[in-house]
Amino acid sequence: MGSEAPKAITIHVTGFKKFQGVPENPTETIVNNLKDYVERRGLPAGVTLGSCTVLDAAGEGTLPQLYQTMESAISKTDAVSNANVVWLHLGVNSGAVRFSIEHRAANEATFRCPDELGWQPQQVPIVPEDGGISRARQTSLPVDAILKSLKKGAYDVMISGDAGRFVCNYVYYHSLRFAEQKGNKSLFVHVPLFSRIDQETQMRFTASLLEAIASAC
Question: pTM for this structure?
Answer without folding.
Answer: 0.94
